């Protein structure tokens, strides 16, 4: 009963440190820890059973970010509420810097070099972006959600990062931001006719794109189109756009029920599955741990996502639940897009698998989400700012 | 915000979140199903795919079979050679690579000369085209033709294309598989558009066939036979030399370079023609060699061996990880020749040392030693020889030109691939024919130095005449008059028949190709070859081995062996058989043969014999030999030239001097060896060829060459015995 949160006699206004610690959602954090352990193990295997290639870095990074997430999770949700626009602004600045300071890798400019480490702002901004949207929509009443003019601000807020990311080019991430925008608007009470128009537009767009690709054929198609076409038949471009899917499918299929065993996945160990420590770590997991291992990991992710949903349902503030639900949706997109592209169900895009893929920025974003979820869980009933006062 | 508004918002949020969560759950479930369908029912298919992806079948070249002499002494073997290879990648992967810069860097690292550097650059461009099945400049085009083809849409025709480079225009070709019909149509169109003549059409078709045949496996050989130091320098800079590798391959080496070069033959690079009818993939290796001439060529298939296969596991970069299974290559067969290395070396030296005048040594010649009972070739020397190992590497143009231009024809095997007028060595044929037509050996002909046959006058070599000559004496003193006279009674058919039985005018060698046939003239032969009728004068000339008669030294040695072995049809061979080849009886009367042998004995051991001066060697029956001299006239000499031939040969043009020939056998009472020698322009058989034959026969007799009655096929035993024999 969010609207009553400010006045409800049961709501707590201030939580002591002890209160917070005792309210930490330990089972959710346990899920994260297990997934992190799986991640470190996969990095160890991907690096040729060696700590020095990836696993050592990954372990340190995971441990560090998890600790930070734990601390951040204890921070009062109201602080996060206040800094939402600031976080968004900071990450947007980083994103703006990419075209000028960025480093190119595999034909895309996504990274900026901070000397000590490289950052991928397009990952970080996802958290800032969702925070800013939640912050804004926190103030939108049901009635206001029905007024298109009131929706201009959140859409404008989304346009710049989506445009910048699409230009990197990183179609996958920009589509994901659009999806998050849609989800948060939907949950905030977007009217159904707009939802249907949005859905219809999305479906029509996808249909139009695929149809155009099919008509162009593999030789004339641009690389985005080729990635779509090889979904239907990897043989079309086996050494190019179809290579990743083809090799990943072979690796996954070779896993069978039980897998080839830890470090024994020959297709991965010999380097045939590309990027098998980052975007294609799922293929490595599948070859070495088989159907059973994959289902366990998928189940862990499902539990984590459910925790996110429960957090959202439990939270009483509009900010808290929108933030929790959309961060969860974002995690869901990470997981589903990554696994689906590994298995040849979606085109290959740059999309890491949370906790398992190597790479700091995405991990930081994911751990940030965990921190926010934790904070929302702990402070589920504290009153956050004034709600439904968009135009006061 | 009103409470009602808040309630709607809460209810809406919950409903919508539940809806979204349901959708998410379905997506996750779908992933689970997909996972199941990929992993569980089809694991075996994917495992097979995986195995296929990460394995590659490489084939291993076998070691070329060695060639040894009859005692197992090595004649030809192999040595390791480090080659710098270039393995071109697919065209689009190589776009940013400056190939020439790579090869120039490599050339400077190995310290290549400017000439070699140029060759490496050429080799690379041509080689890469070959590997890719491309031909640049299949045809040079004019600007108009270029435009015409371009306008006609050549870009869409499979295989063909046009290029423009620095104002030159050309038609290109690239092998494309699976479009034979389209390609043929395109070629047809090009021929019609450009209105090409037959010669151009043939040229184009031939080059297309070549391109299809010779797309070698793998790479291009940039440099061969690198030294350790060169290899080390290249390895140290490997990162700067993309696509290059150092491969170890085996290179043919000859234990005694130059020895038995003609019998052994040599190996050299594979040419497109070699692939016709022989599509062994071993020949498509970039460093492949194929046997040319002699045993190397004839026994090519046996010597080559069979490729082995290795199923290798590779990583994604194509680097070898481990061998999964291996079918080892079958090494080429070891070929044991009939040659006696010691006698062979001696024969070559002895031939080269033979004086042909007071100040000159033999420039060219041939000598063959056969075992009379089997026909095994113990020595086959052709002078001058050549170093066959230069062909194993890439022979330089200078070396090749030198060999080709040498007027002594070093590449020709003068024992079997060159023929000479046999001259008086042919008189045994005439004598046997005379005996077979029933001429009495005692019947004498009075030699006055000249014989009239019809309108022509023929002179005996001894212008003052020999006086009364019977059959035996005529051979001993080589009296031409007796043969002129008797030839009319014998007739050309009989002489031809005996010559045929003794091995003239036919290919003799059982196992090694590369012979020529020589000529035994007959009426039919003259009709077909010269389109002339047969005259009595031809019969006269034939009876003393002049005129149209031509024979290889190998045929002369075979004739001698057949006379010496009692008339059995042995045929020469160079490869030691498991069992001696059967030798049928030639149907000569043993007494006739005995008469011929007796006369041949007197040639060398009777004071009147033509070779007495140069071959008589005391009374020891072991060292005595029997033989027959021959002097083959090369040019029609003037009277003064004839005189100079006798007294002042050094002042006679080398080219106009007679060839010296001698055939012989020994030991005299139990002949085991037959030998024939020709010393080109050696003036006289007695002076130039006879001493060679004497020394070779005596050496064979003394060393017991080929004398291995209990010879086994155990190579080690033979090697041991060979060493022992040579002390």
Notable features of this structure?
heterodimer; A: 392 residues; mainly alpha; three-stranded antiparallel sheet; 15 helices; globular; B: 727 residues; alpha+beta; five-stranded mixed sheet; five-stranded antiparallel sheet
Ordered list of secondary-structure elements with their pairings:
The complex is a heterodimer of chains A (392) and B (727).
Chain A lengths: L16 H7 L2 H21 L4 H24 L2 H25 E4 L2 E6 L4 E2 L1 H18 L3 H4 L2 H19 L4 H18 L3 H29 L2 H10 L10 H13 L10 H4 L11 H34 L3 H25 L17 H19 L14
Helix pairs in contact in A: 2-3, 2-13, 3-15, 4-5, 5-7, 5-8, 5-14, 5-15, 7-8, 8-14, 9-10, 11-13, 13-14, 13-15, 14-15
Chain B lengths: L2 H37 L3 H11 L1 E6 L6 E2 L5 E13 L12 H11 L4 H18 L2 E8 L1 H9 L8 E6 L2 E7 L5 H15 L3 H16 L6 E4 L4 H9 L7 E11 L6 H4 L1 E4 L19 E4 L1 H5 L1 H5 L3 E7 L5 E8 L7 E2 L4 H13 L11 E7 L5 E7 L5 H4 L4 H9 L21 H10 L8 E3 L2 E4 L2 E4 L7 E3 L1 H6 L3 H11 L1 H11 L20 H8 L5 H8 L9 H12 L25 H16 L6 H4 L10 E7 L6 H9 L11 E8 L6 E7 L5 H19 L11 H11 L2
Parallel strand pairs in B: 2-13
Antiparallel strand pairs in B: 1-11, 2-3, 3-7, 3-8, 4-6, 5-6, 9-10, 11-12, 14-15, 14-22, 16-19, 17-18, 20-21, 21-22
Helix pairs in contact in B: 3-4, 12-25, 15-17, 15-18, 17-20
